[in-house]
Amino acid sequence: MSQRLTNKTAIITGAGSGIGSAIARLFAREGARIALFDLNTETTAALAAQLQEAFGQQCMACVADVTQPQQVQRAVVQAQDALGPIDILINCAGVNVFRDPLGLEDDDWQRCMEVNLKGPYNLIRSVLPGMLARHYGNIVNVASVHGHKIIPGAFPYPVAKHGLIGMTRSLGVEYASRGIRVNSVSPGLIMTPAAEAWLASCPDPQAERERQAALLPCKRIGEPDEVAYTALFLASDEARFINATDILVDGGRSQVYHD
Ligand code: NAI
């Protein structure tokens, strides 16, 4: 075991499912103390207990809706009190909101922006003072290929993910001289419960799954671990000169101009 995060403390949002759970597992395996933030307490609490048992360091679950600044602040204090100062923040909680732009309800717009864009900011605002005081902090936002390219029929999700990449670059520059790095990862299609739910909503899920795999240069859909390893690299000191940037984890798909 390489223990790339020994003696580090990390908060991971959206840790109860998909990519967030994969990041939590990998970070625990690499020696980090972790706080798993999510809405879903049962799944998250079970995962925290399982990881603590498997790897020995402290792992805890915190109930926090990322759209609620006061809840976030309380959970961050709870995590700090239990685990120590926060070294790493992974903003992974997110929701797909795909609507016709003219049929979009205000509530859908609001939910999309609140979870995918304001949520990460709420977390950053809560951990940043502690990080600045110690002149050390690594933040990784989970953005998307939708933050780089437009897939028709996915509005307003790409608006939020473009914003998240903009926030990554802006805050990365803002705090660079004070020991803080802010980067993002942009997954392509990754097989998670959210992706499964989207496939299930298609008229022919199996045909859509095959079509999606065929679109990718590598001819397969991505796995949550493949995003987790990129987040691990960015969150670790191996990436100490990497700041205010984004890494695409999409099998090369978004570089293709024509099939
Ligand atoms: P998922 O739906 O499997 O997991 C998302 C987690 O976020 C869930 O546990 C959910 O409870 C939590 N969450 C949702 N709203 C929350 C809130 N308000 N407060 C706290 N937690 C909340 O999703 P998946 O696929 O693992 O996605 C994770 C991230 O990766 C998201 O930001 C998503 O936009 C992004 N992403 C996923 C891709 C994919 O193909 N799966 C592709 C590109 C980006």
The level-1 CATH class:
Alpha Beta
- The 3D shape can be described as globular
Q: Uncertain runs with pLDDT below 50, 5 residues or more?
A: none
CATH superfamily: NAD(P)-binding Rossmann-like Domain
Distance between the termini: 41 Å
Show the helix and strand layout.
Blueprint: E1 9-13, H1 18-29, E2 33-38, H2 41-55, E3 59-63, H3 69-83, E4 88-91, H4 106-134, E5 137-142, H5 157-174, E6 180-187, H6 193-200, H7 205-215, H8 224-235, E7 246-249
Parallel strand pairs: 1-2, 1-4, 2-3, 4-5, 5-6, 6-7
Helix pairs in contact: 1-2, 1-8, 3-4, 4-5
Features:
259 residues; alpha/beta; 15% strand; binds 1,4-dihydronicotinamide adenine dinucleotide
Description of the molecule:
There is one protein chain. This protein is α/β, with parallel strands linked by helices and 259 residues long. The protein has one domain (9-189, 223-250): Rossmann fold (3-Layer(aba) Sandwich), CATH 3.40.50.720. 46% of the residues lie in helices and 15% in strands. The protein contains eight helices and seven strands; from the N terminus they run βαβαβαβαβαβαααβ. Strands 3-2-1-4-5-6-7 form a seven-stranded parallel beta sheet, sandwiched between helices. Helix 1 links the parallel strand 1 (9-13) and strand 2. Helix 1 runs parallel beside helix 2, helix 3 (69-83) packs parallel to helix 4 and helix 4 runs parallel beside helix 5. The termini are far apart. The mean pLDDT is 97. The structure holds 1,4-dihydronicotinamide adenine dinucleotide. 1,4-dihydronicotinamide adenine dinucleotide is lined by residues 13-14, 16-20, 38-40, 65-67, 92-95, 115, 119, 142, 144, 187, 189-190, 192-195.
